[in-house]
Amino acid sequence: MNKRKQIILLVLLIFLLFIINYPFLDSAVEDFLSEKEIVTRVIDGDTVVINNESIRLLGINCPEKGEKYYQEAKDFLNKIVLDKKVSLEGNTKDIYFRKLSYLFLEGENINLKIIEEGLANVYILDNKLYEKELRNAWENCIIKNKNLCEKSEEKCGNCIELKKLDYKSQEIIFYNKCNFDCDLKDWTIKDEGRKKFIFRDFILRRNNEIKIIAGEGINNKNTLFWKGEDYVWTSAGDTLFLRDDEGKLVLWENY
């Protein structure tokens, strides 16, 4: 066999090996470029530990300890990423000096997956990477009617409308469009983060409205104050969640 034929045969063999082992080569290249790390601990639904460093998952906010679905969110994340090799995207820090990242497992964005499971809401800070995908994940969760996205079944769940949400004045107004009174005791209002307002022994009368303002003041039949908060609604955008006394979703509004 002459030298030219040997070269052609060698090229064909290399090409054949490449075709056979393409998935392996592709995975090897991906591993090399992404510098995967192992999750050694899951702290809660949106925080893990990698290389002894706390990593806060970007773009999402899971229930806090003591809140509904806290344990489910933690268990879900623990099941899919603990002791697994993951890749991180994003390199910023929050006010607690935790690293903020998107978590990827075998190419899948875990942050999105947690929202789609109804175990977190969208929580956008300065990093707006994947914001569109996160919003879409929440919409899909609403369609599934799952966990945090589960629609309220209370008779007043269809009565309450959001008439106003003004981040400049920090005012929100709800209106009861039904011809009967609605007992809102233990209903909650929440933003994308940790700020929560709880209605205490409050009845919203038929065809009437109530204003809630962030700040200090004296409550009356027309106005309630979100005390302890100088502001709730951010100028950069936020989401309002209104939930009934069972934690089920009455309405939500993004701006």
What would a concise description of this structure say?
The chain has 255 residues and is of the alpha+beta class. The chain has helices at 3-20, 22-34, 70-81, 110-116, 131-144, and strands at residues 37-44, 47-50, 53-57, 60-61, 85-93, 99-105, 108-109, 121-122, 160-166, 171-176, 182-183, 188-190, 196-198, 203-204, 209-214, 223-226, 239-243, 249-254.
What does this structure look like?
The chain has 255 residues and is of the alpha+beta class. It has 3 domains: 3-32; 35-148, Beta Barrel (OB fold (Dihydrolipoamide Acetyltransferase, E2P)), CATH 2.40.50.90; 151-254, Lamin Tail domain (Immunoglobulin-like), CATH 2.60.40. Helix content is 25%, strand content 33%. The protein is built from 5 helices and 18 strands. It has helices spanning 3-20, 22-34, 70-81, 110-116, 131-144, and strands at 37-44, 47-50, 53-57, 60-61, 85-93, 99-105, 108-109, 121-122, 160-166, 171-176, 182-183, 188-190, 196-198, 203-204, 209-214, 223-226, 239-243, 249-254. The strands form 5 sheets. It has a 5-stranded mixed barrel with strand order 1-2-3-6-5. The termini are far apart. The model is unreliable at 22-34 (pLDDT under 50).
